[in-house]
Amino acid sequence: MRLDIACGRLPESALELNFADAHPGLSPEQAALEADRCFYCYDAPCVEACPTDIDIPRFIKAIASDNLAGASRTILQSNILGGSCARVCPTEILCEQKCVHTAIEAHHAVRIGALQRFATDWQMQQKTHPFQRAASTGKRVAVVGAGPAGLACAHRLAMHGHDVTIFDRHDAPGGLNQYGVAAYKLADNFAQKEIDFLMEIGGITFQSNATLGENITLAGLRETYDGVFLGLGLAGVRALGLESEFAEGVLDAVDFIETLRSRNLSEVVVGRRVVVIGGGNTAVDAAVQAKRLGAEEVTLVYRRGAEHMSATEVEREWAQTNGVTVRFWASPSQLNVEDGAIRSITFLRGTPDGGYDPQNALTLAADMVLKAIGQVFVPDPVRNDQILVENGRIVVNETGRTSMPGVYAGGDCTAGEDLTVAAVRDGRNAAEALHDELMASNTERADHNG
Fold this sequence. Notes:
five-stranded parallel beta sheet; alpha/beta
């Protein structure tokens, strides 16, 4: 008996439409009207809610004044990946949730994310870089991981005049933005365009197919470079812990999304009946994309209630409006396999006291099961180094410095919010601290020689 899994369930024209930009940008007229709604608050609460501390009233006022160069520079000097963050970050629970308009009955928040996209898109279309690289310092820094944290760190270090080499296991830089986010969120190859824009600062080299602990080591990097930044992300995926977990048709959602981002859409296989297990953004992205690839039935199952999901209410509603059935309080208990392939999956339903009833089961037919129950940091590449790891993450101080001299870290491999914008902040702040350290060592050497 063969699985009902196939590629090309929809014609290419339908796939192109399904994976076009989910939320097109504002027109100049729309942007001007939206910018005029801002109160330009002093000590604005929206700024406090932004992990990268963008001066939001300032950039919105610049848009209202038709000063798009000033608006984009204000954004990008705090967040060089402001374009992708405007598209993928949950602004509804960050800056926009704190907008004072929300305290006024029947008013909705200023569309800060959309205005940020408008300004940064304008800048990228100018084919010029808004920042200049400082004179070369002669210092060399290795950045391991080409995700948002690593890219933000590399750009800030390059601005200060350091030479940066980014190492990553993938063929192209970008990390989650390139391989782990729904294609309709970063449509039209935006992730690569933003990376090309970032690289225009100069002084940054990318080395692909480089994996820490395999063909590069932290000890080797410390010998060759003056400083190191680790933006390793979360390379491991939690397992269900069920028998037959590796049966045909049972996949990790992150692998499914990466395949979708790295191939022609018509070549990506999807089941006719897909079950996604999880309650985060990865689960939503996998479920919606499976539906848009042509799956007839897609069910997202979460073990707890809606209020416990890490995916926002906006994301959950997005899944439902895209034809995904969402079920709560159901925990996977058995993968039902025939001839080595998944046929259905059984869940135990939740009870009022928060437990699960073995006598109350739910079985869903499935040609494909996508696991999205969380990612974890894999410490193996740094296990033999002086890097302190606690509670499954690299330990850093307030500047991002690890327990190993000259080595900094940031993003998802350290404790904190698992958000793209938080990773950008970590990379930027660590770059500033590492720059200060490198310049201090120059001063000490000069004093000693003098």
